What does this fold into?
Amino acid sequence: MGFLGDIGGFIMTPLYYAISAVLVGWHWVLETIGLDGDSGLVWVLSIIGLTLTVRAALIPLFVKQIKSSRNMQLIQPKVKELQKKYGHDRERLAQETMQLYKDSGTNPFASCLPLIIQMPIFLALFRLLDHHAAKGDGKAFITTDLATSFQNAELFGIPLKATFLQNDGSSAVMVVAAILVLAMTATTFTTQRQLMSKNMPPDALSGPYAQQQKLLLYVLPVVFAVGGIAFPIAVLFYWTTSNLWTMGQQFYVIRNNPAPGTAAAQAKADRDRAKAERHGHPVVGESGTTTVAEVEAPRPQARQQPKKQSREQRKKTTNPRPAPQAPAGGASTSKQTKAQAQQKADRKANQKAKPKPQSKPQSKPDSRGEQQ
It folds into this structure.
């Protein structure tokens, strides 16, 4: 046990310093702004600040968890096909399944990664507050004075170091501890339930992945309920706040970025369609097609662009020829017109046929003629 204890101390010591540094930092900030550093309210707010800091630092892991969970849901039909094909050969089935995970970039353990990371942090905080600060013993950045302050801190007359089992005969401690344990259990169940009911496609509701999710749905709340009765009030505040963060974070993701083919995706499509109909914007469906929403209000007519015309069409448009007017008078008028045309044609023919006059040469006067 001594060797194992040394290994555990080597692993937990960095966490003691990291957790105590954040906790003491929040305590210092609250005390700096004028709050009483020895009050239970300041210690509770410091623990809540520690929770928010830790969960904000785990956001990249949460994003990775969401992507892995979504990939696990989408490849479930292929997993079922592998089970039907290689169900008689477990070794081949395991090889093909792992190859499918590798090809799709899916890590089946990534969905549990944030929970796995949080457990050592939770354990470090539990030991700092329950095994050290509650006894007035400093650890890491929690000095002896801070440990004594936490040891005597009370919130509405309830010691923060008390537990449901170690309540010194106080029914108020038992009631508050029971409320926090129920809140911790209810938030864990609700978070897992909304994931399965809204953000899992029908194909993913059966098979090994679904069994894993059901295990988390029913087993984790029971584990927290049983273990919660031994947690100090201060640690229950940490875990309940962490569960509320998880529930709100997952609600935001399911509402704004749901998995395809789920009830949450259909609900988001309905909201987007209704919003587009109100504003007259195009709607993009799940398949990627774009449709224009109908709007009751009339839209202004679009300006018609002039068509391109050729040079002859433009000449006709600028210098139109007058249309010949039909003469009045019926058949007689048409006969007169023909006669006039005939006369005109005859005159032109005569002019062409008539020879041109030739000029006579001038002769010299005859001298004889003049004398006679």
Q: What stands out?
A: The chain has one domain: 2-264. The first strand starts at residue 154 and ends at 155.
